[in-house]
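Not sure how to ask, but would you mind making up any protein sequence you like and the tokens describing how it folds?
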Amino acid sequence: MPSTIETIDFHGQSALRLVTAAGARVIVSLHGAQVLSWIPPGGEERLYLSPLARFDGSAAIRGGVPVCFPQFAGLGPLPHHGFARTAAWSVATERSGKDFALVTLALSDSDATRALWPHPFRAELGILIEDSRLDLELEVENTGSERFEFTAALHTYLAVREVEQSRLEGLHGYDYRDKVDADRIRRDSGDVLLIEAETDRLYQDVKRPLLLREYDRSLGINADGFPDVVVWNPWVERSVALPDLPANGFRHMLCVEAAAAHRPVHLGAGESWWGRQTLVAL
């Protein structure tokens, strides 16, 4: 059976379903170019999608992999995490073979984006599944005549069975900005990162792959082009305050995000940039 790509309705949103011959599955919504589900061959769901997520198009969908562009978080004057995660993207390319399926979604400037951010651009998100691997590659091109800068991230919500029993390895020795503690700069001195309270950290210039361990399964996490890693979990009080997240939602998710946030990306006229996050189910 060959790999397939088909258009589906997902909770009222137009989406694509990618299935490989080996049984890997991905669902990606055209609203926000947001990957909402990834199941490796013979495995379990590896992305967290809130059961209270809104699919009416009025906001970003809580879970999966929202695309933050052209602003990460509140690091600028734009709406939180920018406008890409709530924009309507279009299908640019579709390709599939025996062992893989690939789609590329595109977003260009419009009257609506220029009202918020006055720059011509083209963004593309490539989504590739192959074996037990998910590759997400964001490319941004400056299609105008003037230089601009931006910050960006793939805001990946990973599904975990119990966050307090999860261990994130690979961040030892890196500096991070601790948003929970008044944006203080600290250095990670532990062999592993354990989530035992609200966590919101921006790790800077991370150069090694990460490994998320939990019970009998692991997930390899690697980034190219994205220099930073964000680790976020809202914990108890923040979960209760978020209307599209169950009160116990924090127990079953951990955001490990590939980001370009510590230093903005600068693009001259005609220049382009790309960043990739790769997840490998182990």
Remarks:
- Residues 4-281 form a domain with the Beta-galactosidase; Chain A, domain 5 fold (CATH 2.70.98.10).
- Residues 69 and 196 are 30 Å apart (CA to CA).
